[in-house]
Amino acid sequence: MADNLHPAVPELQKALRQGRVGRREFLRTVTLLGVSATSAYALAACSAPPTAAPAPTSASAATKAPDPTKAPAPAATAVPAPTAVPAPTQAPKPTPLPGGVVRGGTLKVGMRVPKVDHPARFSWNFDANLFRPVFEYLTETGPDNITRGVLAESWKPNADLTQWTLNLRKGIKWSNGDEFTADDAVWNIKEWLKPETKSSMLGLWEGFLKPEGIQIVDKNTILLKLDAPKLDVPETLSQYPAMIMHHSFDGDIKSGKNPGTGPYSLTEIKVGERVKVTKRDGYWQNGVDGKPLPYLDSIEYIDLGEDETASTNAMLSGQVDTVYEPQVEATQAFKAKKGIIVESIPTGQSRVLRMRVDQDPWKDNKVRTALKLSQDRPAILDKAYFGQGAIGGDFHVAPVHPDYAAIDIPKYDPVKAKALLTEAGLKTPLAVKLSVGTGWSDVVAYAESLKDTAKASGFDIQLDTMPTSAYWDKWTEVPAGITPWTHRPLGVMILPLAYIADKNGKPVPWNESRWVDKEFSDLLKKAQGTYDIEARKAIMKDIEKIQQDRGSVAIAFWMPIFSARWQHVNNLPAHPTSFHLWREAFIDPSKKA
What we know:
18 helices; alpha+beta; 20 strands; 4-stranded antiparallel β-sheet
């Protein structure tokens, strides 16, 4: 295997042995460099620092995030003994497969069903989750933040990360019988790069990949020739707007006429009401019994509206088996209900208070800084998220990111904030409007807390409240607003989505604040091509400081996210980006509460 390793991998192994990088950073980086997840865990085990020899308890921790490519070991009692056959008068029960897996049933999910068309323009995770059972991705970043291949079996970068060879799986069939080939993959990548598509993917590739840099080597191999080194290519391919469509895509993912490679077919969709996907024959991945996945017969996504109360009540009453991203208040009720399992996971998810730097008064950095200094961050975290999470410092890189660099967090300072408004030549109180979607109770709590604490700074914050759907209709256009941003595995992945310009100097599609800073952008591009973790952190420290000092956002806290499911539902792992990776989900009727 050593002959096929990227030359950086031995260096990273050495850094891990010496304790200069952590196991988490090592695993994430070597898998991006083309090492399979299974091999990466093996390399980490043999490269552990001498003083960190695993104790019995740490061995179990190492297996906390299982490799989904491995089927669970059969339990000794999983196959019923002959004497366990139901008597003729008993209702027959489903026969468990190895690992207790059961086939059949319908999973019911409480989640919004918005109007969408082109997957490259998906704005939120639940958009993608509705269609994940039908359409797949080239790669997939799992609950452990490790990226694995799906339609792409493997990848290999050259030494300087400027050329990437993507090896596609052979023998994959679309649901209409067509063969999945490089033509399909390349068609999708070129769609992302078209400015007229208006995809957020454009920001992730800006400055790195042009259409002419995409080459088909053969029907199962693609070569990406980049204009600059880029480490996160495999994770970029896993982002939720990167869903792979057949090259004959009709422009509307809702039409039901587009073939997919996933285990289900789209059988019903009513915007604002429900989506139903149904098991199809001939899916390319098998279950523990050697037969094609999925285990479920169908999945129904039910739109319960923006009111969290309706979603909570539907879950508590058993009308749905799970809900999308339950808010922190709801999890308290779920934990008290017998039969509901609640999990949490730390993430880089946040509520980003952003200011349009092309509009007054936010053009002036003194005013932006004054608003940032008006945040009582611990108070905001307590009010918005019951104190659960980490304090933010007005830069969009979180402590869970391997490339995060710790810098000082500004303290609440209304005196300094008011002085800055005076320096800016503004009379106080300064009336400003802050737009918020009322469907996010933590966003509303953030805004209300800031409204109170900013009075001493000289701000008169007027809350412009609206339904969440209305906020999404104009989230990039309001002068100031609080926008939920989801987790990405690396800091160098989130920043180009929202804080750079395209080749023509125009802010990329998701740059809602219109802030562009040349020094920031140059350092970010350098960090994106740096595989040495220590070196990338050093660059990131400067990036964070620039954004904190003269950027366009206030970030008061980082959020863990929660998942909730009834105990009879299995294989719905909590995911930091809320990806529904559910091809192996199953329902065990014998465990219904």
